[in-house]
Amino acid sequence: RMVRIPGNLLAGAFYDRARRRPLFLTGLALGILSTLSYGLVRGFWPLLAGRILWGVSWSLINVGGYTMILDRSSVADRGRMTGLYQMAFALGLTVSPILGGTLTDSIGFQHAVRICALVSGLGLLVALIALPETRRQKAVGERLRLRGSRRRASGSLLNRLRQADLQILVAGYVYLMVLFVNAGVLMSTISLYLEQRWGASISIGAAAIGVASLGGFLLALRSALGIVTGPVAGILSDWTGNRWPVVRGGLLLGSGGFVVLAFLTGVEAVPVGVALTSLSAGALAATLTALVGDLAGGQRQGLTMGGLATAGDIGSALGPVFAFGLVVVLDLRWVYLACAMALVSGFVATLFLRRT
């Protein structure tokens, strides 16, 4: 993630200045090399180089994928299309831990990652055959006319542009908070939370389930719910014609999930809390991406999506640092309450837009 924080912005700038398809294919190829390196090299420094290569690869893949969706979508269907893209992402997150763990246990880690590289290679082959170039090239005369119209822009148009930039900033802040509490805090602490509350195993009926197994199940549940909520939220935001109410609903849903984890004591409250936060995260990821896509200018789509991805990576990177820094002195329930308040701060920020 440290590589991706500057890498997303650089990738976005490249996508704004060059054709989309070659950059996206390059990202896929680098990802395959990165995955292969885990099964071929030994030692810390080669592993670190492989992880850095993956950071560069994912910046090109993630920013490029969303930029191409913006190219081929409109305000009327952008929520649905970003939701479908988020569904594919969540499906991968759901399947990959199960597939990777099973392969590692049966044939060993090095052989497992080579198979994963082969699967990625199939994805690259599909992209080579079926993925078109989506960048719409503007004629020189059209660009000159656009520049002239910008020089003659009225005050009201400039105000609308400033309002769009403010909305993009608020959307970025909300996205940072969403990934901070979900991909950052919750994913890194759920097993520790279970252990703090119930010890090494939890009795459910006549069965005793280890906290690592239950934690893994809850993380899989989180990804599985994202498969459903991304498209549903995206379609809903298309249908209403205003994405901000969907964003506010998702923030309230997520904050409620963290309140459940913070205050309810029964073991049955844990999947309820995780489910609520997961529904929120899936809905917000798709809706915020579509919202920022609506606001991004045609000449800065890549950079705007790179900025959104950077906000998310900053949140994901800071979340574990925040959580494990506090658990030394606080129970995790108070950390989860702070997460609820972080989402509430995002809700308040969206209300500020009504006054500007």
Explain what you see.
The protein starts with a helix and ends with a helix. The chain has 12 helices and 2 strands. By secondary structure, it is mainly alpha-helical. Strands 1-2 form a two-stranded antiparallel sheet.
Give a quick precis of the structure.
The chain is an all-alpha fold and 356 residues long.
Give the SSE layout:
Layout: H1 4-17, H2 20-40, H3 44-72, H4 78-107, H5 109-130, H6 140-151, H7 155-198, E1 201-204, E2 207-210, H8 211-240, H9 244-263, H10 269-295, H11 301-326, H12 332-352
Antiparallel strand pairs: 1-2
Helix pairs in contact: 1-3, 1-11, 2-3, 2-5, 3-4, 3-11, 4-5, 4-8, 4-10, 7-8, 7-10, 7-11, 7-12, 8-10, 9-10, 9-12
**Which radius of gyration do the C-alpha atoms yield?**
21 Å
Mean pLDDT: 87
In what range is the share of β-strand residues?
Answer: under 5%
Total E-strand runs: 2
From N to C, what is the helix and strand string?
HHHHHHHEEHHHHH
Give the distance, in angstroms, between the N- and C-terminal Cα atoms. Answer: 34 Å
Strand order of the largest sheet: 1-2
For the largest beta-sheet, the strand count, sense and barrel status come to:
2 strands, antiparallel
Helix % is over 70%
Shape: globular
The structural class is mainly alpha
The total count of helices amounts to 12
Uncertain stretches: 139-154
Which terms would index this structure?
single chain, mainly alpha, two-stranded antiparallel ribbon
